[in-house]
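[User] Could I get a sequence and structure tokens?

[Assistant]
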Amino acid sequence: QVQLVESGGGLVQPGGSLRLSCVASGINLNYHAIGWYRQAPGKEREGVACVSTVMSTTMYADSVKGRFTISKDNAKNTVYLEMNSLKPEDTAVYYCAAGLVAGRCTIAPTTKDYNYWGQGTQVTVSS
């Protein structure tokens, strides 16, 4: 059984930082592209960042570029999303997703690349 479990969300003040984790079981993240998505109430799902398998190529949404960093620890089968300089507009439920795609990744809002999704973790940025 495949599971992706996110953690690390919470309440943080504007300008603060959080690190989200996505632990995978049942699949080997060495062979899967990983994406982080978020969805705020009343808004469409938005791709935030992704990392591919080969060369660990990364991609970021313009709204988070320079503030968020995605990374993988293959030994721990875990993907992280380091979030700095957080803004109120970053408030959302954050999801990780995994797909058996080699050599590329996507943050497109609608994609068939990701077969597995986590349950999400809430991030709230507020003073």
User: Anything to note?
Assistant: Residues 16 and 86 are 5 Å apart (CA to CA). The chain has a mean pLDDT of 95. The two ends are 40 Å apart (CA to CA).
